[in-house]
Amino acid sequence: MLMPTSSSHAPRERERLQHALETLLRLLSFYLVPLAIALLSLLALAFWSNQYRSVEGGPLALRVMAHADATLAPGQALAQVTGLPEVMARETRMSPDPLWFSMVADTQAGTVIEFPSRHMTEIACWDGATLRSLGSSTRSASSGAVAPLRAGFALTLTPAPGASAQAEGPERLLCRAVLIGPARLSATQWQPQELALAVQQFHRKSGLLDGGMIVLTLFVLTTALINRQALYVLLAGWLILNLRMGALSAGWDIQWLGQVVPDRWLLPSRALTIALYAISTLTLYQTLFRERLANTRYRTPLRVAEWCCLPLLVLSVILPYHIFLPIMWGFVAYGLLLMTLGLVNVMSQSHMRVAFWFAASFAVTMLSGLAEVIAAALGVRDLTGLVNSVTAALASSLLAALAVAEQMRQETEQRIAAQAELQHTYEAMPVGLFTLDLEGQFLSANPTMHRMLGADAAVIAGKNFQQFFADGVWGTLSTLVQEHPDAELRIEDRSGAHCFLVRATLARGKIEGVLQDTTEQHKATEQLRFMANNDALTKVYNRRGIERVFEQACFKPMTLAYLDLDRFKLINDLFGHLAGDEVLKQVCERIGAVLSGDQRIGRVGGDEFVIIMPETSIRVAALICRCLVGRIGNTPYRVGDKAFHVRGSIGLIEVQPGMQMKDAVSTADRACREAKSGHRDGLVVYERDSSAFIEREAELNLVERLSANDATACMVLEMQPIMSLKMPYDSMNFEVLLRMREADGTLLAAGPIIAAAEKSGRMGVIDRWVLSTTLSWIERNADMLVNTQFVCMNLSGASLNDERFIQDTIDILRRHREAASRLCMEITESVALHDLNNTRRFIDQVRNFGVKVALDDFGAGYTSFSYLKELPADILKIDGNFIVNMNAHPADVAIVEAIVKLAVNLGMKTIAEWAEDRATVQTLADIGVDYVQGFVIASSMAPDILLTVSSAAGFIVDEELNLLVGTLGTPGKAPVQTAAVDEAPVTGLH
User: Fold this and answer.
1) Which secondary structure element, helix H or strand E, spans residue 505, and what is its range?
2) How does pLDDT run across 604-616, given as a tens digit for each residue?
3) Model pTM?
4) Which of 6, 237, 380, 538 is most solvent-facing, going by the fewest CB within 10 Å?
5) Beta pairing, strands 823-828 & 852-858
6) pLDDT per residue over 339-356, tens digit each?
7) Residues 6+ apart with CB under 8 A from 542
8) Which residue from 604, 708, 700, 702 is spatially nearest to 651, judged by alpha carbons?
9) DSSP-derived 3-state class of residue 941
């Protein structure tokens, strides 16, 4: 007797046997049973006898004519058709006219003559010999021996009343029928038994089609409801329409679910069914392949087809059936062609199984239609026993369903892949994702959320959101998600060391949120915000930051100080920028130690600072600034092993109400420059009523006037004579000076005008006006200027460096070519040397018109002598600082004498300006200066006064100077009288 080796061996054996049994049952049910059913079905269709196959009826020859006259009597019709040739069938070619036809049939009792056309709507028959009415019928009413049968109508032959059985035999019959649509009139004679089998087969096919399609439709609808897929609903509707199209093809559309369709609804329902089937087919096609065809050439034609759908639907309702059908055929042909080409394109590019199934469905439908055409042409009912309208409709529907199923399978696979990808993304997302209930309890969180909170999934589960973040966060977040669809909140953890941005929304009774760690971003943002308003080196406010401080304090009493470090550039140049930067830091530290309250400092330049002191009186602010000057300059700055002494100069102003910061800084800067120029304590204070504010306001008003379109409207010219020291009575040269007439009649000097014009960018406009007006005046008064060799006119640096001004100058000189030869343009040394090549080019251009060129303020710069040979000037105008009181400074005399000798060697003339006494004129004449200009000769005057004398010497009023001038050169004409110097009205200048 064998004993078990283990107590667990028997259970394991039973489990193995159970598993094997279940595998066998699944194999049998899933594979073997369906395969056996399929093989048996194929065997039955191929080899077994058809239970419902019947002998076909005998076709009858017809004599047919179409006649639209409704009053035509049967006798007249019979006479007309008698001579017509016999045909087996007659096509109506869409004609709605009634057809009269006769035939010879066996009148044996019980014989049935069928008229199988599904397009026949009514029929009436008569005995050809006696014209006795045999009956008539429509789809809704019948009388006599005529009644609807299958898709058409049937006439049951019976002996005439009183006729004997021997009278049975061939007999002529006359009928009148109305057919609507693409009808084919024919007649078939049946024996009662054979017809019964045919009718049975007809209803079997009809039931098979209806039942199969309805069951399939209900299955698809159920699937649509379960899966909530609109595509299934579309397919269900398409299947029902396909059922009706199959019924229409087979002639079964006269009933629906066993109920007879009313006669008046039959033709309209056919047109509507065809239109809806076409629209549904196109919609199904577009739903399946829209994305694939979006970038192909078929996109636009298919859109055109879609736009035709609604008009087609309307036409199916309002047009007669026989008129609507040709229109429908054209649309169907266009749509089928497009869809077929589109399917070929999709299959060739992507090899989609959906496209193959849909193409197979199309092929079955078209082959079925082609089979019906061939069958009709050959005069047989069905081309084969296996292919007919029923099997074609079922096969087409099944293939279309397979296409949709394949589409749904692909979408399901994509959805599963997307879900897997989403799950992977959820777990790998670099931000925290979480779900909370309405009480704040964690329902789920991704791994990143775990890391942010410093806890694993087991710890987070069941924890409250509030436990990980600062107090009050959960209450705020809960309120936000209730009030806003997309709530956003910046929060901190309980330690305050980390900052987070949480975005949350309320969805399906839960709070879905995203948590992002913004600690580094928060630090960077704060740093950027600080850098936007503060200087990167010194950490004090920058220009933008101090402007914001000014804007915030501008409604309060305020003082503003402008601080400039003296000789700070030397530290950078000698010891490098690192040393300079360290000094700047220490300067700001010392300033910060002095300031208090709302007083702020801002760095607005390399070594320039603005200090704003709100609600600080000018006296207190002055004390603070004196303290700052002392703190800055009294103690050296140590950088490494070096010590630097830095002194600061401060301009302090009292800011007026409504004053702009740029104006306040500009005025304080002016005060600072004044402090740098000579004040020992390094501080200049402008109080509210200081003249500096008045001058600043006047300057701003002047800038505004010059910015207007009529900037030169109040401009006038004055002229100051330039006397020759060689021939004082034979020359009348002068310099043109710009003036502006004020509203009270006073004249404003050129200095403020030029400064304001340069700030407003209008210097070019003024220089053009001066040039044009001067040349015009010279031309008008040429006869009175016979002793004038040159007329000096100053050019500003802004104009000389303006290419447009240079071109305009050339155009003006070209228009006044005669007067241009007397013009002498003065160019200051600093302007000339700014762009030496440009200056030389300008000089060459104006010299082509005979214009002379003078270098103004010669000797004031550091490089005059080294660059003099580069500039082809005609005159050197010696700087007035060497001329004023030159006899008291021998060095000035020596410098002027050197300039004169240099000019003589270079072939240039010299003009000495600012001559104010006779002794100066004597010295200038002794050292060989050619021309002299100054108040001792004459001040500037109106142009009309200048024309009252023939030489500049004629304006001299000093008798001693007159005696001196009389000894100079050989006068061509002694002065008769001294000209009046009172200002005369200026005329002809505009």
Assistant:
1) strand 499-507
2) 988 899 999 998 8
3) 0.45
4) 6
5) parallel
6) 778 777 777 776 667 667
7) 533, 534, 535, 602, 603, 604
8) 604
9) strand
Tokens of 753: 């005008």
How many other CB atoms sit within 10 Å of the CB of residue 225? 11
Q: What is the DSSP string of 708-751?
A: STTTTTTEEEEEEEEEESSSTTS--EEEEEEEEE-TTS-EE-HH
3-state secondary structure of 356: helix
pLDDT band at residue 51 under the 50/70/90 scheme: low
Residue corresponding to tokens 């497009």: 338
User: Can you read off the two tokens belonging to residue 33?
Assistant: 């049973």
Residue-wise pLDDT for 781-814, tens only, equals 999 999 999 999 998 877 887 888 889 999 999 9
At 981, the amino acid letter reads: V
* Residue whose structure tokens are 């003078």: 854
Whether residue 675 contacts residue 650, with contact meaning beta carbons closer than 8 Å, is answered with yes
Contacts of 459-465 with CB under 8 Å at 24 or more apart are 464/439, 464/440, 465/436, 465/440, 465/441
CB 355, CB 362: distance < 8 Å: no
The residue assigned the tokens 């005057």 is: 941
Q: Residue 161 is encoded by which pair of tokens? A: 């009343």
CA–CA separation, 834 and 105 (whole Å): 125
Amino acid 471 reads D
Q: How far apart are the first and last CA of the chain?
A: 145
How do residues 673-690 score in pLDDT, each as one tens digit?
Answer: 888 876 667 888 888 766
Q: CA 930 → CA 587, 598, 859, 878, distances in Å?
A: 55, 64, 17, 11
Q: How confident is the model at residue 487 (pLDDT cuts 50, 70, 90)?
A: confident
Q: What percent of the chain is helix, strand and coil (3-state, nearest 5)? A: 50, 20, 30
> 383 pLDDT band (50/70/90 cuts)?
very low
**Alpha helix locations (H) across 848-935?**
864-868, 890-906, 918-926
Q: How many CB atoms lie within 10 A of CB 482?
A: 11
249 token code pair: 């093809």
> What are the pLDDT digits (tens) for 442-477?
888 888 887 887 777 666 766 787 778 877 888 888
Q: How far apart are CA 789 and CA 823, in angstroms?
A: 8
Q: CA 218, 223, 224: angle at the middle one, nearest 5?
A: 95
Q: Of 593 and 706, which is predicted with more confidence?
A: 593
Neighbouring-strand partners of residue 967: none
Contact between 732 and 785 (Cβ < 8 Å) = yes
Q: With contact defined as beta carbons under 8 Å apart, do 852 and 812 qualify?
A: no
Instruction: With cut-offs at 50, 70 and 90, classify the pLDDT of residue 691.
Output: low
- Amino acid at the residue 874: D
Question: Can you tell me the mean pLDDT for 840-856?
Answer: 90
Classify strands 99-106 and 112-115 as parallel, antiparallel or unpaired: unpaired
531: its two tokens: 């850098």
The residue among 981 and 883 whose pLDDT is bigger is 883
Structure tokens, 544? 């933008």
Look at residues 803, 805, 794, 869 and name the one whose alpha carbon lies nearest to residue 831: 794
Q: Which residues contact 206 (CB under 8 A, 6 or more apart)?
A: 247, 250, 252, 255
Beta bridge partners of 103: 173
